[in-house]
Amino acid sequence: MRVRTQKLSPEEVFEIGPDLIISHGYRHIIQKPVIERYHHKIINLHISFLPWNRGVSPNLWSFVTATKKGVSIHLIDEGIDTGDILFQEEITFEEEVTLSDSYEVLKNTIENLFISNWSRIEDDECVPIKQDLTAGSYHSMKETDQILQHLGDKPWTTKTGDLPALLRTTPRTNTPKRRE
Fold it and tell me: For residues 97 and 42, what is the distance between their CA atoms, to the nearest angstrom?
């Protein structure tokens, strides 16, 4: 098993020749040739309750948009966080929790969900469920940066219950993106 945070080229992936690719916290888009070769063998661990809050900073956006919070393990396809869902877990938070603390809870939950279902993933015993892509949301780095700038010097220490009042004047967009 190899752990990488740097962007991998398709050639590097093909040289490694993995049986399965697990993406967790990988901030790069997996390129189309890799997706085509490893169709249904690339899994992403995402800290949102898909189809809500696809894209970047899903934890932040679940509070900004007052949508379901949770984690999802899904297959990677050519869209951004649009692949079939393998496992999900919904989570509720108190309003006094900070964004940083809620992130830690989500990170631990997704890791535990993955560990508890690893044998089913490894043995290809999962029943994928299609996402309803007419529902949910997508958020880009650009709009996330706008929100974070609006929150000041230490945005991750913001209490989640304070976000609605703090963000009333922040512009938002919600344009779905596709992989190139």
Answer: 33
- Quick: pLDDT tens for 62-110: 999 999 999 999 999 999 999 999 999 999 999 899 999 999 999 999 9
What global pTM score does this model have? 0.87
Say how many C-beta atoms besides its own lie within 10 A of residue 152's C-beta.
Answer: 10
Cβ-based burial of 29 (10 A; exposed 0-12, middle 13-18, buried ≥19): middle
Please name each of the domains of the chain with its CATH number: 10-166 (3.40.50.170)
- Beta pairing, strands 138-139 & 42-46: unpaired
Categorise residue 125: left if φ over 0, alpha if ψ from -120 to 50, beta otherwise.
Answer: alpha
| SS3 state of residue 120 | helix
Residue with tokens 């609605």: 164
Rounded CA-CA distance 28/23 in Å is 10
Identity (one letter) of the amino acid at 105? V
